[in-house]
Structure formats: structure tokens, C-alpha cells
Amino acid sequence: MMKYALFLGCNIPARVKQYDLSARSVLKKLGVNVADIREFNCCGYPMKNSDFKTSLLFSARNLALAEKENLSILTLCQCCFGTLKKAAHLFKEEIGLKDEVNAFLSKEKLSYHGKVEVKHFLSMLHKEIGTTAIKEKVSNGFKKLKIAAHYGCHALRPSDVMQFDDPVAPVVFDELVDVTGAESVDWSMKTECCGAPLLGVNDDLSMTLTEKKLANGKASGADFLCAACPWCQLQFDTVQKLMEAKGRSNHNLPSILYPQLLGLAMGIPGEELGIQMNQKDLSSIKAFLT
């Protein structure tokens, strides 16, 4: 039986609790066990451009805590995935750097020896469980539902470190959407940035990027967007609603988190998946269930 240390990061518990709820429900249905390590701290992502070594130390502490439990880390957030995965790669490539962070970790009687794998929720489902096994759990699949799968940035690049999928022509997310019975549409902007990193720095540019994504997804025939990162979900859900109020968007293209989409196809009640927590109304998606 698979077991992982579930890494929620900072954003999900505070602002996207439905991602946590739906992921746990789906993992339970698939027979995957998760452990909550209460000592986990921030992945280090917010500090990487201001204090890189402190960012690495934050990552190293999380890696060491998981290693202490002899568990691989399973992340839901793509920013956390990218940060932890890159840190683990650097510690493998630069022994001196690993020794430096271990000197700090020793104060807590912790150490990291490079034995922890970092996996994202989507890649674990696709590579470790497989689409065939997941499809066997689909009892209430979708019909005639068109989904625009948004890949996000941090899972794909740098591709030699992430090893998630082809950064130019990815298929993992599309295949996971297809498993639910929905059709993953081909849209030209599926690998483009959602605009979230610019929010609070340049709101106008952030919303412009989001508007382009929404327009492209709608033009491609999608009924819903689908995300697997809390930052992307907030941009397509909360920020899209704000844009509508400001008259900056009228596409009405709601975004659903992947474990919510999969959970519905598995017959899990929407309330257990936190559907009601999304800002954009998702009730219409039930009409596509078989």
C-alpha cells in the first residue's frame, strides 16, 4: 500500500481548503495513505529571490522531516513541488551545499541524506497508480463535458529537474482528465502562465494574462477549466470573479480542481469535495455526469 507525507504548504490550508479535502477523498478511494507531519514549514518558495540559502534551508528541513519518517513527499501545490524538487536536485549535485544546510539542521537533530522523492499529485496518479487503475474506480463518469486542462509553470520547468512531462507538448494532465469521461480540449495556451505571480505586483498585467487564458479556453470549446495548483485555482476562481465585477471578463469559465473533477466521477458527493467552497458556481457540472 502506498503511503506519502502529504505536503500542503501555506496557501491550501488558508485559502484553498477544498483542494485538501478533495485530494484526501480521492486518495482514500484509491487506497493511498497519507501522513501529516505537523512540523512541516513553508517550502521556501516566497524567499527564493530574496534569500536563496534560507529558501534552501526551509526546503531541506521539510525533506529531512519526511526522510526521518522514511516517506516520500506528495505535494498538491506546484510551487511547493518545484521548490522542494529543485532543492533536492541541488543537494544531490552540490555536496557542500547539503553539508552546509545539515549543519543548521543538526541543531534540531535532523539531517538530510537525499533519500526522499518529491512527487506532485498529478504525476503520482499518472505514474504510480496509472490511468487504467484509476478508471476502474470511476463509477459515475462525465459525458459530453469539455475541459481545458491548465498545466501551470512549475511542474513543467526546468524539465530535466522536474521530470513531470514534456514541457512543450505535455499529455499527463490531459490523460488524467480523459479518465473521468470528460474530453480534454486542445487549446494553444494550456502551458502559459495563469497570471497569479504578478498579482499584487502588477494587477493589470496579471488580469490581462488571465483574461487571455479564459478567452482561449472558451474559444476552444471548454465548459470548465481544470487546475492542479492552488495559485492557479485562485486566479481562475477568485480573481476571475473579481474581474467579472470590474467588467474585465465575461467568459464565465469556472475552474474546478482536478481531485474535485475526479472525485465526482468516482461518485464522491460534492460536499465532501468542497465544491461549495469554490467562488465560481460549479453546480452545472453535475448535468454532465452519467
Q: How does this model look, in words?
A:
44% of the residues lie in helices and 10% in strands. The longest helix is centred in the N-terminal third of the chain and has 17 residues, at 52-68. 48% of the residues are buried. The model has no long low-confidence stretch (mean pLDDT 97). It has 290 residues and is of the alpha/beta class. Strand 7, helix 11 (230-245) and strand 8 (255-257) form a beta-alpha-beta unit. The chain has twelve helices and eight strands. Helix 2 crosses helix 12, helix 3 packs across helix 5 and helix 6 crosses helix 9 (172-179). The chain has helices at 11-15, 17-29, 52-68, 78-93, 95-105, 121-129, 131-135, 159-162, 172-179, 203-219, 230-245, 258-265, and strands at 3-7, 33-35, 72-75, 118-120, 146-149, 183-184, 224-227, 255-257.
Compact summary:
This protein is α/β, with parallel strands linked by helices and 290 residues long. The chain has helices at 11-15, 17-29, 52-68, 78-93, 95-105, 121-129, 131-135, 159-162, 172-179, 203-219, 230-245, 258-265; strands at residues 3-7, 33-35, 72-75, 118-120, 146-149, 183-184, 224-227, 255-257.
Core attributes:
single chain; 290 residues; alpha/beta; Glutathione S-transferase Yfyf (Class Pi), Chain A, domain 2; Rossmann fold; 2 domains; 4-stranded parallel sheet; 12 helices; 10% strand
Helix count, per DSSP?
12
CATH fold category name of the largest domain: Rossmann fold
Q: What's the mean pLDDT score? A: 97
End-to-end gap: 31 Å
Biggest sheet character? 4 strands, parallel
Rounded Rg = 19 Å
What is the strand tally?
8
Low-confidence stretches: none
Order of helices and strands: EHHEHEHHEHHEHHEHEHEH
| CATH architecture descriptor name of the largest domain | 3-Layer(aba) Sandwich
Shape: globular
Going by helix content, strand content and strand pairing, the class is: alpha/beta
